[in-house]
Amino acid sequence: AVLMIYGVSFLKKGENVVVSYANIIKSKGAVAMIVSSLLMAIGRIIDRKFTISLSPLGYSVGIYLVISTYILVYGIASGSRISDYTNLIKQKWLYLILGGICNAYSYVALLKAFNYFGVSVAEPLSMLSVFVTMFFAKIFLRERIGVRLLAAVLLFVGSILIY
Prior knowledge:
The chain has 163 residues and is mainly α. The protein has eight helices and no strands. It has one domain (2-162).
C-alpha cells in the first residue's frame, strides 16, 4: 500500500513527496481522480454486497440501467438536449458499441472475480490494466508516458504485495 501511495505522488511530480501531494490538491483533474477512486471503492463494496446473493450479470444490467438513467437526467438538468445524445449515437455508434462491450465484459468479469479473490484483492489487481491503458494511450492518443511508467510499476508492485 505504501508503494501505491508513493506511486500516486507521480501524478503531479514535485521536488519531494510533500510538494507532489500539494500539487495534487491544487489540480482539479487530480482531485477529480481521487474523488472518482473513493466513489469507485465505495461502489465496489456495494457491488460485492449485492452480488453475494444476485447474479453478477443481472446486477450488471441493473446497475448500468441506473447509471445510464442518472447520467441522462443529470445531463438534461445541466442543459444538454436529448438531440445531443441522439446525434452522438448516430455519429459515434461503432465506438459506443465497442466501448460498451469492453466496459460491460470487464465489469462482469470483475464481479465474478470477487467470488474467487474477494474485493480487497480483485479490485486492486484489476487496476493492472494501467499498463495496457498506458500502452494504448501512447500509441493511439500520442500521450507522453515518461515517469508515469515508474508510477505504474510502483502501483503494480503494491498490488502484488496486496495479493
